[in-house]
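User: I'll paste a sequence; please echo it back and then give the predicted structure.

Assistant: Echoing your sequence first, then the prediction.
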Amino acid sequence: MKLIQQTRVVTHGNETRTVDVLFDEKQIVKIAEHIDPAQASELIDGKGFVLLPGLIDVHVHLREPGYTHKETIKTGTAAAAHGGFTTIMAMPNVIPYPDNTETMKEYMKKIDEDALVHVIPYACITKSEASKELSDMRGLHGMGIYAFSDDGVGVATSDMMKKAMETCKELNSIIVAHTEDMKYRKKEACMHEGIRNKELGLVGIPSACEYAQIKRDLELVRETGCDYHICHMSAKESVELLRQAKAEGLPVTGEVTAHHLLLTEMDVDNANHKMNPPLRSEEDRQALIQGLLDGTIDLIANDHAPHSEEEKSKGMVKSPFGIVALETAFPLLYTHFVKEKKIFTLEQLVYFMSEASAKRFRFDKKGKIEEGYASDFILVDVDSVSKIDKNKFYSMGKNTPFDGISCTGFIQKTFVNGICVYDQKEESLR
């Protein structure tokens, strides 16, 4: 048994109270104002910190296998621990693609060997994400895989997506959709089609590139009844389509990233602002915030997408899409939305980044600081101010537009299965 002494926990109504928390490697055993230290073999000083449930990110690119010059399972999960994420879901656009049981077995073996946090892998919707043939969904489901995505590309045809949805409905699985209709994306398009792309003389990506495929997919959900989740929503039209679908009672949800909540097209000035979907207008950003607040958008997931510095040095047109996010998402969102603007409460932010994801993706006993819940949690300093320093990232990717930004809400300790896997004081990982 271990004991965190005199830490603060968030109560309903966004108040905090000071408690002791007794836990083992499976669960939180007891929460009380005072717990006899003699019950524990290890004492942890929680004074001055807030204890939060481990964050959950259902949209992460670990790049291994196939792209280990960008990231590895080891470095990506180290970044997760550093950023307070105790559970992440790994997208399947790696090589070889996890579209069959044999490849998935090898993939999961590597995860077991190297991961510092819980990693749940997605399997591909289609073989090699090519939209030509379904992956071995039934075989993969038999291994315990229940979420399928062709993230990085959209499923190109409605016929293929319908087949995928029908199969997922049968298997009680989830389609997690990167929605991108490539007929709307012109050659060399690299940012939102709006004001700023014209100022910079760059080819833009219209919002229809995203929402047209959402509209298509929602029609298919009406036909099939498939459980459906929309990745990284960025456009106001997408929010409205999801709102209408929920009003109909369709089994649909959506996510938004930290960068789409914080930035717009007008912030774009180099390739570290290049991501897919792109940063859109202020009107879109406000729609995303409102979508979270009114329950249209369900959760925050950050699309951590590391690239090498060489790749990101090629300018807006030639650099790959994507930014790193695991190590910056919580402090940025806490500082801007909770501490400064007071748009979210801390309770709301933690819900969006933990409990909501646990509920949506069927993680039992995760996302809360309660007795009987998993001993996955973080100690956070919500008072001290520090600057984001990309050179201190555990991720191999340094491609962030937030380097040098002053924030509070940095993670002090991260616990996974009751074991401290990151300790800021020692600047160390397990």
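The chain is about 30% helix and 20% strand. Residues 55-360 form a domain with the TIM Barrel fold (CATH 3.20.20.140).
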